[in-house]
């Protein structure tokens, strides 16, 4: 059985939706950010600050490549699309759903930009991160859900309908 893989910007609601979706569909839930924190015994932001972005992305990619689950809802980190091998692995046995939000909404939702563990180069703005990643989310997504103005229940119903259409 395929996985449902949630991708999108930090603040798009991947982890929150993932939990609700997993309960609704009676599937296990996996959060790759939590896997990274558990295996590294550090917060994402600590890894980025102490080891740098390249090391963090390698750790994230290894966590993805080591992931061996079926029939699960997987919430990924926003930077997962930066490593093609990791995305290839997720797509091999996954239905990838891009949770799309306009930049202004992402900006509103992210209050803790310096502590959240967002992969950003020095001097890079959140808008630049958004502009860099959106084409990758669109490339890798098998489906896109426009989340603006919708609550989690509505988004869950949309993903469930898509999922039931491909099963």
From TrEMBL:
It comes from Defluviitalea saccharophila. HAMAP family: Shikimate_kinase. It holds the Pfam family SKI. This is Shikimate kinase. The gene is aroK. Pathway: Metabolic intermediate biosynthesis; chorismate biosynthesis; chorismate from D-erythrose 4-phosphate and phosphoenolpyruvate: step 5/7. It is found in: Cytoplasm. Catalyzes the specific phosphorylation of the 3-hydroxyl group of shikimic acid using ATP as a cosubstrate. Its cofactor is Mg(2+). GO terms for molecular function: shikimate kinase activity. It catalyses: shikimate + ATP = 3-phosphoshikimate + ADP + H(+). Belongs to the shikimate kinase family. ATP binds at residues 11-16, 116. Monomer. Its EC number is 2.7.1.71. Gene3D superfamilies: P-loop containing nucleotide triphosphate hydrolases.
